[in-house]
Amino acid sequence: MIEICFVCTGNTCRSIMAERIAKKMAKQRKMKNVKFSSAGVRANGENISKNASLALKSLGYDGRNRKSVKLKKIKDDVLYVAVTNDHKRFIDSKKCMSFEDLAGAVADPYGQSEEAYEKSAQQIEENVKVLLERIQNLRGAK
Q1: With b meaning 16 or more CB within 10 Å and e meaning fewer, what string describes 115-131?
Q2: Number of Cβ atoms within 10 Å of the Cβ of 49
Q3: Cα(16)–Cα(132) distance, integer angstroms
Q4: Kindly report the CA angle at 95 between 64 and 12, in degrees rounded to 5?
Q5: C-beta separation of 22 from 6 below 8 A
């Protein structure tokens, strides 16, 4: 089982979008034994942002409400995917990569228009595709 946790600041926009996108993409690829979650380094129990929810729904993903989760402890058996290199430095684990290590930075849409959230979600899709391809390639190499 591979457990992957996406991490951003508040867990109301980018990391929760990444979790929802990854879950659907992995299911479509029939990937088994991969578990996805998300957290925020400064999360405080807020709901997913309205525009993040709308962006997810418009792109065909789960946009249901969920409270943000604070990243409390770095676990040795989890692969962390940080939204930015700053988040990666905060996590400070050998089992951490950032979107910038995958397919590129994802703009922070916090407080912006639904279109800004959709653009970020599309950037996240590209990063998740690269991540899932890497996992599939590693599994194929066994």
Answers
A1: ebbbbbbebbbebbbeb
A2: 21
A3: 17
A4: 25
A5: yes
State the fold for domain 2-140.
Rossmann fold (3.40.50)
Q: Tokens standing for 35?
A: 């578990």
**Residues in a beta bridge with 37:** 5
Residues 6+ apart with CB under 8 A from 137: none
Provide the residue type at 138 as one letter. Answer: L
pLDDT tens digits, residue range 18-60?
999 999 999 999 999 999 999 999 999 999 999 999 999 999 9
78-82 and 34-40 beta bridge pairing: unpaired
Cβ atoms 49, 117 nearer than 8 A: yes
Structure tokens at 94: 């050998």
Q: How far apart are CA 142 and CA 128, in angstroms?
A: 22
Q: Are 53 and 122 in contact (CB under 8 A)?
A: no
Q: Kindly report the number of other CB atoms within 10 A of residue 132's CB atom.
A: 18
Predicted TM-score (pTM) of the model is: 0.96
